Amino acid sequence: MPDIELLSPVGDLNCLKAAIQNGANSVYFGSSRFNARIYANNFELDDLKKVVEYCKIRNVKTHLTLNTLIKNSEFKDAVYLAKNAYEAGIDAIIVQDLGLAKFLIDNFPKMPIHASTQMSIHNLQGVLELEKLGFKRAVLARELSIEEIEYICNNSNIEIEVFIHGALCISYSGQCLLSSMAGARSANRGKCAGPCRLPYELLCKNNENKKVSSLGKGYLLSTRDLCGLTYIPRLINAGVKCFKIEGRMKSPEYVATVTRIYRKYIDMALKNEEFIIDNNDVNDLMQVFNRGGFSTGHLDSQKPNNNLIFPDKPNNMGIYLGKINKYNSNKGHITLKLENDLQIGDSIAPEKEDSSYFVSELMINDENKKLANKR
Fold this sequence. Notes:
Distance between the termini: 44 Å
CATH class of the largest domain: Alpha Beta
Number of strands: 20
Radius of gyration: 23 Å
Mean pLDDT: 91
Helix content: 25-40%
Strand content: 15-25%
CATH superfamily of the largest domain: Aldolase class I
Order of helices and strands: EHEHEHEHEHEHEHEEEHEHHEEEEEEEEE
CATH topology of the largest domain: TIM Barrel
Strand order of the largest sheet: 1-2-3-4-5-6-7-11
Largest sheet: 8 strands, parallel, barrel
């Protein structure tokens, strides 16, 4: 039975506990500098040893993200951070900057260095170069098909890690300059402003009469999140070492739910049980975070992914709750025909509004209830 690693995102201590309690084999997190999610809570340098010890006691590996480009003037500081992580007992460091990676490989030979997806490693030649340089693992670009991943695994000896769930970029990771050029916030410095999640209008100019017409408005660059559950058995058979969940900016509830569900299906695949995905699990994934449903990303090369973009809304959609049949403006009450369960404390958002509302009262046949079941 292959040794498959489930790697969960950790933005703070609560996320760390959520990942471990729900079956993560390893976690990845950043410090306050040199990581691609600089606006996450992250961990201060003094916290590293405590975090590593907490994980080691529970037999969970730790990966530090040192995955941004480094200026010459920052090189000593980046090495200092890596040295402290090494002395704290970190299990691996994820690196984007090639010069920094080479220095760490040469000077800390016992510390595994992983090539970040920010390196845009998207073919076999790139992976083989990483092998020569001494990298332990390559985190492949998220734009690869499953056939390309299989080809890389079958023709290289380095460990291969792939993203299995979470947000996708519209561009190759490490190659997008849109945030940097438009807002002076570089994604390669951990400061992406997310311009692909903004609304745009697609215009067409007629060269003959110089007329400009609109072909559509909306969030035209905003990708649906990846859900790779169905690909788990094939990726394991291909030789993938590690499945990575995106989400260091997400909540502990997200980390817990996604980790728990992917743990279930990885174990199912490893036991060679009949691989059937429960719709209730997909529903849980949808509820904790989705952008207009899920996508298979770029994994399927056999048919065009017409489901990659969701132009209506760039943030979490939750799940479809039901239809509003009546609205009482005097009392602020709505009458719902439910297609999913609803309970006190839930948050709901009407389709054509930007606001969301907490449910403080539920009534069925004029009786107050804590839970309303779908009918």
